[in-house]
Structures are given as C-alpha cells and as structure tokens.
Write a structure and sequence with these properties.
mainly alpha, about 60 residues
C-alpha cells in the first residue's frame, strides 16, 4: 500500500512539472529563456511518464 501511495505521489509531481514546465526549465535545468520546443519536450516527457506510472500502479499493484 505504501508503494502505491509513493508512486501516485510521483505521478502528482510529474503532473505539476508538466503544468509548470517553464518554472522547471528555469529553476531546475537552469535554462534562461527556454525555447518553446524545450517546454513541449518537458511537458510530453512528464505526461508520458506520469501516465505510464499511473497505469502500471493500477494494473500491477493490487
């Protein structure tokens, strides 16, 4: 049960990264004035990882 909660918390963090991609690029990746292509890549990667982790949690952790 604890692993399921941790995985779902990671999903929530990834969704926040997707929502605040500009903040993530500027503060974490230290990119000044990130391009739209970089922001799109960050959003797609975060959403894909979050969706995959969510599906894995729902299917395999019962």
């Amino acid at each position: 049960m604890l692993t399921k909660i941790i995985c779902l918390a990671v999903c929530a963090i990834l969704l926040f990264v997707s929502y605040r991609a500009r903040f993530f690029a500027e503060r974490i990746l230290k990119k000044q004035d990130p391009s739209e292509a970089l922001l799109l890549k960050i959003k797609i990667a975060a959403l894909a990882c979050s969706a995959a982790l969510f599906i894995i949690v729902l299917i395999f952790m019962k």
